[in-house]
């Protein structure tokens, strides 16, 4: 049934296409005979053939019928193909009549009729049944009119050009069929291609909608997960920093901190992978001190390596340029993922991080990075799949569980953004080596560079500063105000954007911390109103959305900064202090 419907639909479209495409040809055919038939009678007059006085009026009469057919076609009573077909049928009938009339010679008539059939084969694009009817009429009516009504024999007619006329009529259906099939085949290919393109376009639209829905879902879930997680992580860090006398309470807090940090890492990995796959991650190169970066990385992993009695070795080429230019956040993420995995899957022995200079020119240096462990190793059959999403190698030996399986997938995608790729060499039971190369610009001059903050912030206070905090989540509001209290920073709170704007009109503030999604009035609207009152005041977006497009939207709509939840106290202080530099030189 489906094929039948498809054929019917195709045939209907083809008939419409054929009618449109051949409309001018059919009109040309009719106009040609309307003009040329009377003209073709002139040679009979010139040679003194009395047949002229029969053929000329006959052509005028047939011309009047052709004019009628053209009129009916213009009124859409008949199609163009029907018009040319009826015209040819009428002409054959009139020619059969003329052939029965006395001639001095049939050569001119046969020549005219042969040219007519050749012209029809070149111009017309008919269904084959039309051509068969025309050929059948010619092959039947012409010999009958000659044999029964003319004063000459059929042999004489054939010898004076009738043979060529009969052969032309025999070939006419084949010529029409070839032309018709050729046009129909071309249309079929175009029709099939169009259908294929439409199907692809439909699938593309569905895929784009699915991708958009996935991103929207993750964006929403990001906000819903990160918002309570921010309160958990922040408050746990604050409680650990307090003096805790009871050993059991300290252990419970350490366990809670570990679980909160692990949950935060899982959420960040899922969202990072989605952002990279959605092309929402753009590298942000800045100058940095490689020695400081790698030393901070080493300090980060020392406690974990000590817990497992592993030797953590950092072998950094001492001749590296003093200033490299790269996206340090993403480079740090790549190295952290690799070292974290190495420590995680190494029970004894060592983990080595090696950075060597592979090549150098006046503007760029090629660095070779290696992370080498003596862990459980990865079977050769699984080495290609460990970089796939949600995939972890499972060698025979025991292996620590946990994690999303996204760390190496994210690492691979980040290195793709850097224009590099990761290489793995591993043997079960003997360890693994992950390596990659980066070509980075470098600077030899001493310049202000981006540095990574230390784990502890300096004791800075801002007793004369006042901050407005707007957030509808009570836990996050409590965390932000507790962090401000510890630095003796004065603050006011608002539970929605409307309340925040009203408080801003009544009081003077040095900084605004604004959640983006709040009831009554969201952070975007409130910020726009505040900017009308004071275009200069720093307004930092506190949001659970980590998507680049929302960050760009916030910065384009009046926000001065963008701090993503969840954050730990050190991140919070380092970020907001950078907007209070004018108040204290020790802010950072």
UniProtKB/TrEMBL annotation:
Its EC number is 2.7.13.3. It catalyses: ATP + protein L-histidine = ADP + protein N-phospho-L-histidine. Keywords: Membrane, Phosphoprotein, Transmembrane, Transmembrane helix, Two-component regulatory system. The chain crosses the membrane at residues 28-46, 52-71, 83-100, 131-149, 161-180. This is histidine kinase. It comes from Dyadobacter pollutisoli. Residues 220-442 form the Histidine kinase domain. The modification 4-aspartylphosphate is found at residue 515. It holds the Pfam family HisKA. Residues 466-580 form the Response regulatory domain. GO terms for molecular function: phosphorelay sensor kinase activity.
């Amino acid at each position: 049934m489906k094929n039948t419907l498809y054929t019917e639909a195709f045939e209907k479209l083809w008939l419409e296409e054929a009618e449109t495409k051949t409309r001018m040809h059919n009109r040309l055919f009719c106009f040609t005979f309307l003009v040329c038939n009377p003209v073709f009678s002139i040679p009979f007059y010139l040679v003194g053939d009395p047949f002229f006085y029969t053929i000329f009026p006959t052509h005028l009469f047939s011309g009047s019928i052709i004019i009628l057919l053209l009129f009916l076609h213009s009124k859409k009573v008949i199609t163009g193909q029907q018009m040319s077909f009826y015209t040819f049928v009428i002409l054959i009938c009139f020619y059969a009549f003329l052939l029965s009339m006395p001639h001095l010679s049939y050569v001119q008539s046969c020549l005219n009729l042969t040219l007519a059939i050749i012209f029809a084969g070149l111009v017309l694009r008919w269904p084959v049944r039309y051509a068969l009817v025309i050929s059948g009429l010619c092959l039947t009516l012409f010999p009958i009119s000659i044999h029964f009504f003319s004063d000459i024999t059929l042999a004489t007619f054939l010898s004076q050009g009738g043979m060529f006329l009969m052969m032309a009529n025999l070939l006419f259906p084949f010529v029409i069929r070839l032309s018709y099939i050729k046009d129909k085949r071309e249309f079929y290919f175009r029709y099939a291609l169009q259908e294929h393109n439409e199907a692809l376009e439909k699938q593309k639209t569905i895929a784009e909608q699915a991708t958009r829905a996935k991103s929207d879902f993750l964006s929403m879930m990001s906000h819903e997960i990160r918002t309570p997680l921010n309160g958990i992580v922040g408050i746990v860090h604050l409680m650990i920093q307090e003096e805790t006398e009871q050993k059991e309470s300290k252990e419970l807090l350490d366990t809670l901190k570990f679980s909160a940090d692990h949950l935060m890492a899982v959420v960040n990995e899922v969202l990072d992978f989605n952002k990279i796959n959605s092309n929402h991650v753009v590298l942000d190169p800045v100058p940095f001190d490689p020695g400081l970066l790698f030393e901070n990385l080493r300090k980060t992993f020392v406690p974990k390596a000590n817990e497992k009695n592993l030797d953590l070795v950092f072998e950094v080429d001492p001749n590296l340029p003093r200033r490299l230019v790269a996206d340090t956040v993403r480079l740090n993420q790549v190295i952290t993922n690799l070292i974290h995995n190495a420590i995680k899957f190494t029970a004894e022995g060592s983990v080595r991080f090696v950075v060597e200079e592979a090549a150098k020119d006046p503007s760029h240096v090629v660095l070779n990075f290696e992370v080498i462990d003596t862990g459980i190793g990865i079977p050769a059959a699984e080495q290609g799949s460990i970089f796939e999403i949600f995939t972890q190698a499972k060698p025979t030996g025991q292996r620590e569980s946990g994690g999303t399986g996204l760390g190496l997938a994210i690492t691979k995608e980040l290195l793709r953004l850097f224009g590099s790729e990761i290489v793995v060499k591993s043997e079960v039971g003997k360890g693994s080596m992950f390596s990659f190369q980066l070509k980075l610009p470098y600077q030899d001059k001493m310049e202000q560079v981006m540095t990574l903050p230390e784990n502890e912030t300096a004791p800075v206070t801002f007793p004369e500063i006042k901050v407005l905090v707007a957030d509808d989540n009570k836990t996050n509001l409590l965390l932000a105000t507790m962090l401000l209290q510890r630095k003796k920073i004065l603050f006011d709170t608002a539970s929605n954007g409307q309340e925040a704007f009203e408080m801003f009109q009544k009081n003077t503030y040095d900084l605004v911390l604004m959640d983006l999604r709040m009831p009554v009035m969201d952070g975007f609207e409130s910020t726009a109103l505040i900017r009308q009152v004071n275009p200069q005041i720093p307004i930092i977006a506190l949001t659970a959305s980590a998507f680049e497009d929302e960050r760009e939207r916030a910065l384009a709509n009046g926000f001065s900064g963008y701090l993503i939840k969840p954050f730990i106290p050190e991140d919070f202080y380092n970020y907001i202090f950078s907007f209070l530099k004018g108040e204290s030189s020790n802010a950072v």
